[in-house]
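Below is how a single chain appears once it has passed through the pipeline. First comes the sequence as given, then the structure the pipeline wrote out for it. We keep one example in the README because the format questions we get most often are answered faster by looking than by reading.
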Amino acid sequence: MNKKNNDKTEQIKQVSEEEKLKQTVKELTDTLQRLQADFENYKKRVDKEKAQVAATTKVVVLQKLLPIIDAFEIAAKSNEGEQLRKGMTLIQTELAKVMHALDVKPITAIGKRCDPHKHEVLMQEAREDCEDDMITEELQRGYTIGDLIVRTSKVKVAKKLNKTQENKHDTKEHTAQ
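Resulting structure:
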């Protein structure tokens, strides 16, 4: 009889242990499902907030551009050359204000060594008076906002002539004459 009681006690312990494990699995599954739902809700909220920030940014930029649009309309209505020039100057001034308000800064180019992160070389010219890769002309201005490049500067750079190249260059010029 003692053996039967021990077996029953052992079975009860096993059933009790199984029930505890099942309960633990159920609790963990519920927790996991809640966490997954919370994470999905978080992702949706972040996406919605990003969309709101983007829309707000567009509105702010447009509000800054409206005075420029107004200045263009005034300039377009002008029939006189001087009025048109004044209108264009007003537009340029308004654009400068917007750029300043947005912390937009022009990239320095002329006289600087070409930096491929800031400058895009469109042309090269042989020069004796400049070092290689020195920017000699800015074809289109580039801009930054803080450390971000908005647009690279389009530039022309110098390629220094060495003595052999200079002699060939001079010979070509003399034969062309």
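The chain has two domains: 1-102, 105-177.

See the next section for the split statistics.
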